[in-house]
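Entry 14. Structure prediction run on the chain below.
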Amino acid sequence: MNAAQQELSYAGTLSYFNGDELTTLDYRHMVVHGEVHQHVTPLNGPSRKFIREGLSVSLQLDSDDELVQMQEKIEAGGISTTFNPKFDKLGETYNIAVDGYGRIANRSAVCVSMTPKEQDRYRIHLWIDKQTSILLRWDMRDHDNRPVSIWQFTEFELIEEDLRQHSFANGSNSSVTLDIKSKQSVEEHEDDEDVQWHLDWVPKGFELSGTSNQELSLGRDSSHNVMYSDGIVAVSVFVEPAPKSHEGVAMESVSGSTVVVSHTIQDHRGQSKLVTVVGDLPKKTVWRIARGVKFDP
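Output returned:
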């Protein structure tokens, strides 16, 4: 399936259900001179377009969109990754089995179930196109088998070579484009002397996949972010100076499979830091990661 993502071009309409709301997206995946390009455009809600061209990622949106003020929290690693899983080591943490056959977007598909060996992540069902091995549907379910998020193509077509430039020519009326900074490599993070904290625990199979630093406008402090992934699910941890309004406050929100938690802790200098963790993991797991942030003396 990974090879199909790197070799084939396709487009279609996606439906996304997050447990409460249904969103429709125009999804285009192109391979141009060996480089993956993706355009993802929601067809309802705020006018936005996510664009990936190789390692370059940007977001087009209206000038009054709330995301304009949240650029430092928008990560290149978190955009358009749902349909690009990496399966190299997933057998170590999931029991993987063929779980039936069916039809998605009028195409024959194989259902693959992924049941976690521990209770620290969701169950996943993948519906894979029999002809191309492209992922057509993705279900995440809790341990009571209730759906927490579903992605599915409702329309799907392979794109021929001579149609690629035409299919990607649709422009945007958005007035603002945010260039999203790519994450540092793992090696750069390990050599970064400014990062003075670490995680006591992450779920088995999760490995460091990227980092970023955001210089803040006031003072010398920075916002530090790390991302971990098990090859199919990602979690991000942000550590930054805590606003006075957040001191001593713990917050959480849940939208489908995505959980966001925040709380404040004291660093090695006695200064308040805000820890925020975002991940498609059960709430207990996300909180355990958040409470495992420790500062080095």
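The first strand starts at residue 10 and ends at 17.
Filed with the rest of this week's runs.
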